[in-house]
Input
Amino acid sequence: MIGITQIRGRIVDVLRQTIFPGIISFSGGKIQAIHKAADGDNNDRELPFILPGFIDAHIHIESSMLVPSQFAILAVVHGTVATVSDPHEIANVCGIKGVEYMISDGKKVPFGFFFGAPSCVPATVFETAGAELNAADIEKLLQQDEIKYLSEMMNFPGVLMKDPEVMKKIAAAHKLNKPVDGHAPGLRGEQVQQYIDAGISTDHECFTKEEALDKLKRGMHILIREGSAAKNFEALIDLLNHYPEKIMFCSDDKHPDSLVEGHINQLCARAVDKGIDLFKILRAACINPVLHYKLEVGLLREGESADFILVKDLRGFEVLQTYIKGECVAEKGKSLIRLPGSDAGNDTVINHFSCTKKTINDFQLAEPEAALPVIEALNGQLITNKWMNGKVLSEPDIVNDILKIVVVNRYKDAPVAKAFIKNFGLKKGAIASSVAHDSHNIVAVGADDLSICNAVNMIIEHKGGVSLWSGDGEPGNIILPLPVGGLMSNEDGYQVAAQYAAIDKAAKALGSNLSAPYMTLSFMALLVIPHLKLSDKGLFDGDDFRLI
Output
């Protein structure tokens, strides 16, 4: 038949838990027929496996430092056909206009970007954000077809205390029959039950198996997160054996260099190596997000969208081809997506950046009257410890790996917040970033005030980016500009990934032994994750939920 494309392979029916040789016929972006091969036609062991495409069930596209269209170009190579995307970061900078920018840019490419309405902009009252979304704003967003859910409700104290504005946002999602994502790190027992009873159905913040199990038994869907900084796969993956219909895979935050290396396909391969049943793995990676969020993504069934991938085997999940709505968008490690009209970088950008350059005096700290707690960063985790040094500090203690951390308000000129942090390992210089969850002020860590000042000023000059200052010696002074909201680049994704890999390597050359120093840095101002963080307003106790 004219216009019909046919692909032959070993078809993986995840829902029926069968694998059979057959032919998929598709046209007009939809699967027209799936034919099982006749008996005796199963001799070719070289046939690829055909299965539904992978879905990242919770990610902030902004953390890839790429605009959605560039993110898609990299992701399809790994068999990702869709993401459940929370535009919380750009919303904290630019409000509704930021969300609209993400939707518009995502429509440039054949990829399933399914966005949520950011529930916590700003995330807390203890920081300065660039915008505010109230309950009326959220309801307007939720009424759009492109908005599939209410994004993670990070204000879990507000839920427990039944804050009227918080409850209005949740009610708006329920009225429109759209799910509500959760964010409840460490919440257990009666408190998490109260959180669930408010109508919140997922959580991606579990750090331990015990916490996740408590939530699973209470009916929650658990997203196993493996990003560039927070890595919970090893702690939680065994639960997939027992709760295959309640678990999904997600990245949450993934930097561009690690996206070049792989995506959800890597988690599938690791789960297979753990001996977990293949169909349970693929249910988490391909099926559960579609069912839970009601996504317009095909599940390899007749009459549905032709979204599927061809893989070499079901162990390493090497992706041979990726199809979205019947279009081959990646083949043999190469993306076939082309942006309309240009390769990259020609669109008008959106931003909110108004502070002016700083002087070294802005970063100097008068000696406090008493010892303050030190933030202890933890490799591979978003949580931090509250470390009582016992010493009164006014300057970094490089020998004991206690450096200065600062947060600079990027939306207006204001006093610089200053504190101390352990475990970054820098022996000299400083690193800084305007990617600083959740309000995305400028965060920097350094060994001396001059280096911190210079690293921060590079970012102010470019109105966003990640920077490194080492002075006159190696590895030099580097800036990766992020002109879109101070969060993303609209340049070629592979080039951005290479630039990021270089600055990450340079940070490690300064002494940092963190696996992802810039990703870790970006979470040091994230107040909704315990235990001790720094906002532009000061040192924040995440347990008591107050400024110290």
Summary: The chain has 15 helices and 27 strands. The mean pLDDT is 94. The first strand starts at residue 5 and ends at 13.
